[in-house]
Design goal:
477 residues; mainly beta; Thrombin, subunit H; Immunoglobulin-like; six-stranded antiparallel beta barrel; 6 helices; 11% helix
Amino acid sequence: MRIIFAVSLLAATMWAQDQAPAPASPPPPQQDQQQAAPAQQQVAPAPSSESAPPAPTQAPAIARTNLSETFNGPTLSEIYCAGFITNQTVKASGTVLAGNESPEQANYTDHEYIYLSGGDVQEGREYLLLRHTHDPNEYESFPGQVGELKKLGEMYQDLGRAKVLYIRNKTAVAQIESSCNPVMPGDIAVPFQERPRPEFKQTQFERFAAPNGKMTGHIVMGKDLDTEIGMRRVVYLNVGESQGVKPGDYFRITREYTAVSKNPAESLPFHAPASDPTQKDSSKFDFRKQSGELPRRSLGELMVISTSPTTSAALTTSMLEDVHLGDGIEMIDATPIVTAAPAAVAPPEPPTISCSVSRSTIQVGETSNITCNGVPEEGHTLTYSYQTSAGQLTPRENRATLTGTAPGPVTVTATAVDDRNLSAQTTMNLDVQAAPVAPSAAAAPTPSLLNELIFKPNSAYVDNRAKAVLDDDALRM
């Protein structure tokens, strides 16, 4: 009985699944060519059923060289995912309400769909997705950090970039084209603007550099609320446009021993004895009181990638040890990196071609085979074509067959063209002769006398002489 009931229940379940409508799924997204790249460098989102059919794809251009140019600077992800601190008002064009998988899903990333509300959202435009953020712990990595951050402005985290595809019932449907961090309801959208992308420069690093008298400041916060900073990480400085800072400026990261002595955690080693029991004369140097007598250390360097009136976002470019919040900065000179001039690229070599004929002289109706051998530059391919001044030509790849149709000289031209449209030609001369004329069947043969025999009267006897003559006639015929 239980077996029959279980089979019936399974059949009912399968029938219900067959009757239920299939859930709608978004169109398959296309991959971006570059993550977080500017708008004009992005691939358009996959077309939906309501949009016009896509334009026919064009064949890629043939590369004439395998050399490529790379950008010597921050990546697009480092530029458009850096975040910033500003004291200016950030006006949101829209606010994230939900996504196409809400309420089951709250975080949205690459190529997923989100819904925006706001009167300034326009169909077809691209928007930067931001999060107005703060440190909920308000832990001070250095004395006065929380108060200084409040004076500098508000902190915003870059989440990515999205394009509005439709507006339905005052709600915009947008697709995330590139993602730095997951987008959640409550995050805001602002019109996309290109950001400067400075190139790396050359500096002279000094491990124990003396103060140079240029602009100084310190690191107030790290991206994603980091407190210890490593290589190629973004930090925020307490100097900005008001102090003349601009993208591409370089700063040296410094640390004074006096700052170490004021840190409750880092100053603990100062309390440990710096001597060995075997030493008869131990050091009398007091780190806590005399740390100001020690030289300033250089920890690394950083480059400014964006600025606001009060702060700057900078990328660490070289590191000797981990950087801490509160470490000092000092502007330094930087010069463009001198790169060797690229070697002259040799002009492309055209192909070569040579051909041979099986018979240089033929009669009308006969054929001659032409065989060509083309040699392209390495890495390229050839196609062949033929032309003739007379006769009938049948080409096939690097071979052709000429059939003579009329007597006279014939010139055949063979051309080899590579995939860069570079070509080579050669010619062959042939002679077509008239076919021999066959003898006429209407003309009668002319008889001729071979031998003569005389028989005796009233006798048909053939003597030996007659036999010899008849044998000779048989052989001659």
